């Protein structure tokens, strides 16, 4: 940033406090400012502005641009750690005047804020963050303070049942009040034995199990598994009958001496080709996600792993994936590495200039291998590769051998969830779509009890035993959701969950990026198979951000039972509706859509070879804060998205133009048809006029042949020839009316004689009515014609209608 523009040096002491924060336009629904301070500098970018703590997030607004700075704005539940003991590797200019506060996020963000000294600004912000970053009670979260109708949550039980029905090749439209939705086939069946969560508090209310196993046997097997998490079916292949099952570790105890026949029958049922227990059985792989040393260590605590001799046609395989504590430390080291060696670090210094540039990339310039070893020391990519390799191995056993696989770790809700859901993603192309991804997460992560509250360090209903009923009712009443939440009616009851209540000191040790690591694995597969996934890397980033923010209720609490007790689906919004609305706004050109998606290329399983499973840093997530320009999509993808957007716009314009052209063509055809009809009418009228003209001329000649003169008269000055021409004109524009009349008079004898008319000569010699004055017809009688035309004066219009037969004159 240029000197003198929104930086520390131009801030004045009078700007430290203001009576109003002026942040209203930046706030979300039900978001309230708790404390705000002006004159704060975001050290990463050396930008000054207003820092506010709301009931949802830490909000930083630039003084220069008057816009939210995304780097300095982080949801409270996404904050992993805050500290005022900041030791800068490289000391920026004027830093000795500043009081520093560092915020470390679960989303790879490390930001440092600088406050004016001796103003108590930092202390005020610190106190509020300590109080609201880790709320004591569940309903203090922002998700409970929003109107759930905007992103209304559907029934999670119905979503799970729809996925189960898909396994059976059927559809479920609504949830019946009774248990009529329970179905089965010749291999598997649905059971409601856990409808009250008595079989297993952390399992869903409806389970899919082998049809050959009764509910009584399920109850007997539950005591043999840690946390009563028995082997159940998570995914099945309707064609081959192979299943992917999950459970927790067995309680074999020291020396692996304990057995449970119901558990052995249940596991054997996973391998049967049909409900007939005597039918041939397929191969069974029992996959223990832990290192073998960890599994053996659990024997002392009563846990352990299965013995293949106790499970028919089985093989036990260990994958060597480390536990949640190792993963947490690994991500912490990766975050530190990225912040230290990024373009923009939390101390505001570029990695190229730190320590004179001699340790660029984490090593000495004389040995560039130092950079790679430092990244390798984080262990993150190795852990991701282990999870990927394990899931690919499981998928290959099911797809290539039609074998069944049972997966577990210690408790069966961390590494087990990662492996089962990732293997399902490889096996079933449906899970690689938006709807399928939602169904997969709802089933394997939410319904089967991944402890999100423990892993994100937020309270859950298991903490209610330490709360008073008065505090609960007061808080719920202030939110306006007391009547709709089941917690209102259960405020005086003991709601301690299956895992038991935990204090904040214990909870911090359970925080671990298990979901983040799984989504990282999904990204690696998306990178390897860009045409296999409907969603993009950006969708995965937004999904993770929404989960970590705790803005929606889907990922609150530790299991389905706890969410049902808290009434989450009734009083909190749904993350899936939120993401769906984002896509609806942008249409197919939205950045959540994968431009390269081609389902026809990967209609079946994808089975990546081990050599291809070499993960890389996920730039869109891991590098977006420290290396913002490098974190964006590749130049090729960016250009392709721009071209695709233009193509979409051009296609729409083309469709609009084609629609207009069709309309014009239709109108032209209509006008052409009308013109054709008019031409037909005009031709018919012209033919009629010509016929009438010929008839009139024939009448005129006939009358003249009788020795009569045809006299035309009008009130306009036209000659006889002009009138005839006008009357019989073919010009349709001549529409002038004529007061026209016709009179017929006899021709004088002289004219007759001179004309040499034969009829006149006959009359002259033979007519008895002829006088010395000549022929008086038509005023007098005529021997030839009698008296038919005596005194004839006819209107021209009437005369036109007279038809004279030629034979009349020859009679």
TrEMBL record:
InterPro entries: Myotubularin (IPR030564), Myotubularin-like_Pase_dom (IPR010569), PH-like_dom_sf (IPR011993), Prot-tyrosine_phosphatase-like (IPR029021), Tyr_Pase_AS (IPR016130). One of its GO terms (cellular component) is cytoplasm. It comes from the Eukaryota. Residues 655-681 have a biased composition (Basic and acidic residues). The active site is at residue 409. Pfam families: Myotub-related (PF06602). This is Myotubularin.
